[in-house]
């Protein structure tokens, strides 16, 4: 897929890899702004940003998993488990620090379970994370009986609704998580190991990379991101809701794939994932503004996943040539 020019050669596949996702976002934004003028209102755009926070933080965890050749299906239910227990702890004790520790620890626990199942027992990531998803779903329903926990203190609600100056506090947290993820992937030996494992695990083993340790780290990091996302979501809703978060793992996976991270592993960067999250956010927001049925919204997101994977396959084929 090459077009010759006087200055050399131009690769459509390479151009798309670098700039395609940004162009798609700009095009969608312009079209949605023209179709529905409410889309570009300040209130609506602030809502989009708030909604994107949780998906983006989940996507940071999925990013490490996918780059290393794995996938995590558990975040939706683990998010509900961690967030609801954090809210319950806050309601019972009034101690914000303890509530944060409980939420993050719950996420880390399930991340560690995923990591142990995958690395110690060689269970495929799809099956391991599906199992932990079921465990988290059963655990949260057994603990709460499906009951919501409301009337949470203002200090907890601030995490999801507060501002630092004119910037929403959840956005500040999201930016910090993005920076940490970027540093891990771009500047640390762990990040290089994850790329190597996703690119060719056999070669990574032969070169001395501790594959199991790296995979366990990716799972644990994803778990912490999930716990944090759960806390922020419950704080935004001012209540612990066991039914919340269902299906959010698919939104996060879609954001990462749309952002150009390969399902085959070894390829991807967090900057494009940010744009992928924004694309998912504006598409869902626009469909809500247009009063599109939630079932059709799922169809659209499913098609989006298929298109993103097809593009990934074609781009990889073109680059290999």
UniProtKB/TrEMBL annotation:
Major localization listed first in the record, in broad terms: membrane
InterPro entries hit by this protein: ABC_transp_permease
Keywords attached to this entry: Cell membrane, Membrane, Transmembrane, Transmembrane helix
Pfam families xrefs: BPD_transp_2 (PF02653)
Membrane topology classification: Multi-pass membrane protein
Species of provenance: Ruminococcus gauvreauii
Regions crossing the membrane: 20-40, 96-118, 163-185, 216-235, 255-283, 295-315
Record flagged with keyword Nucleotide-binding: no
Entry protein name: ABC transporter permease
Compartments where found: Cell membrane
